[in-house]
Amino acid sequence: MTTNRIPPLPDVDMPFIFDLSRPGRIACSLPACDVPELAPEERIPAALLRTEPASLPEVYEVDVVRHYTALSRRNFGVDNGFYPLGSCTMKYNPKLNEDAAKLPGFSGIHPYQQEDTVQGALELLYTLQNDLAAITGMDRISLQPAAGAHGEWTGLMMIRAYHESRGEQRTKVLVPDSSHGTNPASASAAGYTTVTLKSDARGLVDLDALRAAVGPDTAALMLTNPNTLGLFEEHIAEIAAIVHEAGGLLYYDGANANAIMGIARPGDMGFDVVHLNLHKTMSTPHGGGGPGAGPVGVKLLLESFLPAPLISQRADGTYFFDDERPHSIGRVKPFHGNFGILLRAYAYIRSYGPSGLRRVSECAVLNANYMLSRLSAAYDVPYPRICKHEFVLSGTRQKAFGIRTLDIAKRLLDFGFHPPTVYFPLIVEESIMIEPTETESKETLDRFIDVMLRIAWEAEHEPDTVLQAPSRTETARLDETLAARKPVLHCDCG
Q1: Contacts from 311-314 at CB under 8 Å and sequence distance 24+?
Q2: Which CATH code for domain 95-351?
């Protein structure tokens, strides 16, 4: 007698690529080498040669493609979901700009080429310098810095060089408690001591605290406007006057420029140095460790200290690398910045034009205030008034039911949303920092709002659902304390 047995259910996950390995399987066939082959020891120093073959899987090409495609689907990016990461401005990257960066005339050049062979690329960089100067109200721009924090450090080193050229040894940088965390870190890296300025009851710089802090040892005030709470510093002209009267300079952290681009300019507010995060404001790719771009702009009093070379134009209209800058702080990055990222930013600016850039900021501010208005019924709002491009909620109401902001963030994963920034800025308890950007539709914003309202209801009526989240993701809820103390940093691949 035979028994009809139901076969076991197959694993729904794709098999681990090493499980598919069989001797003799190959993913591709390479043509035979058409140059004389050297012995291994002639190609690689003997000390670096393997004594045993690498333990790599032997699989077909289709298995390799499916393996890496499956891995890519586990990643979250702005191309496959809403990414409301406050302060980081994760907006959609237009594919037109990506196509421009891949044009052979740009992608095929080399930074060591002669100037007369790359005049088109130099013209693009020169024009971008001028565009960014016009947008920020600065007099000259360096495109070298590779990221925002790198731009901060570069700006502070120019501030140091400026004071030293005047025979002044200023040692302190003032940083509001609503600033980005990179501000005090950059100041310390530049050799300064940081002094924290407390915010007033409205979330702005406390003018009395500023007056008490400035003095002959003040090198600069680092300020973000609008600040990290998403609020515009209403007394910025008075703030600038206080710092300048003490002999200090004003540094503008451009991470929040998406709120004011085309509307207000840091240079007109009294700032002396500005950095811009092109991977935020100008929609160039962001994350994964880079590449990024953090151009720095200055007023004329600091122009001679800019990193060399700059891109300049001769009387005959040709462009060149301007290295003759005796007071420059020197080169801060190999070659001339991340050219592909700068090219994307150029394409972005040219696509929108002046009126379009203003519209970008207006839509970003409108989206943020729409979300703030709808969410304020379910979450505490520490500074309840008109915001700019981002806003900060507090999860203190949910905390009363045993639900932390971190739990809310994890529950969002179950609905396919990347969580907003949490626990920053530090001056707001259980903070939830949301930045929708201008590139999201009202339907996307409404869906995110509805999910946030649902989570607020769950926190009160079904807290276990939130505490056990995420439950629909590739990986279940992790023990973060264990992961931090005993991280697994290797793969046992057999």
Answers
A1: 311/122, 311/125, 311/126, 311/129, 311/143, 311/336, 312/126, 313/126
A2: 3.40.640.10
